[in-house]
Design goal:
The chain is α/β, with parallel strands linked by helices and 216 residues long. It is 40% helix and 13% strand. Helix 2 (53-62) runs antiparallel to helix 3 (67-84).
Length: 216
């Protein structure tokens, strides 16, 4: 990815992109899946290993799960999220990167976590005020890999064209959400092989957050 197009806005993922949270994602997924099996919305043979909590919830919503069942499942997830935010730290370079970007670029954060869990973590780590907009799952029609959160940001800042946005995240669901929103995606960390397997081809890959400065 080159600087041929001027970037004006950056959408960040939160967990394992900016924050080193301690959310036990496998345990959260298992707990949500067990609940949905008990509710008769998920078969015991469902291949949860190839899914995330968000894609499992999207599956049962499509299958007709009631709002009450979905809300109860999300409450289970929120318990894991809030617990995992205890003692959360920042990824190396996160604070410095945000300091350099703030004021020059519009900064947004889009996370599948609940808004409450996200705000708690961002306040604890001292970076909440770096962002012009924070989007939790309550502001989305559907969680990532849906582009809903990214589209929410883009509607909010309607003066910035799609080609002037950039998305940064560590997971294939971040890349898929960016892809469907029509914005370039930069992968942080070592998740590119799975991304490619899922049909996501990042515009660039970085191992250090400060390397993002090479692309803005």
């Amino acid at each position: 990815m080159k600087k041929a197009i001027a970037i004006r806005g950056i959408i960040f993922d939160m967990d394992n992109t900016l924050l080193q949270s301690h959310i036990d994602f496998p345990a959260m997924k298992q707990a949500v899946a067990r609940f949905l099996v008990q509710e008769g919305m998920l078969s015991r043979e469902f291949a949860i290993d190839s899914h995330t909590t968000s894609t499992i919830l999207a599956h049962v919503k499509e299958a007709g799960a009631s709002d009450e069942v979905l809300a109860a499942a999300l409450q289970i997830a929120e318990g894991f999220e809030l617990q995992g935010m205890e003692g959360a730290g920042l990824e190396p370079g996160a604070q410095e990167l945000l300091e350099k970007l703030q004021g020059t670029y519009t900064l947004a954060l889009v996370t599948n976590n609940s808004y409450a869990a996200a705000i708690k973590a961002l306040e604890t780590t001292g970076i909440k005020e770096r962002f012009d907009l924070i989007v939790g799952r309550e502001q989305m029609d559907a969680m990532k890999p849906s582009p809903s959160g990214n589209l929410f940001v883009m509607r909010h800042f309607s003066g910035i064209a799609a080609e002037n946005w950039m998305s940064v995240g560590d997971s294939w669901i971040d890349g898929q959400a960016a892809k469907e929103a029509g914005i370039p995606f930069i992968s942080y960390g070592s998740g590119v092989p799975l991304m490619v397997e899922k049909g996501v081809n990042p515009a660039a890959q970085i191992d250090k957050l400060l390397s993002l400065l090479d692309y803005v």
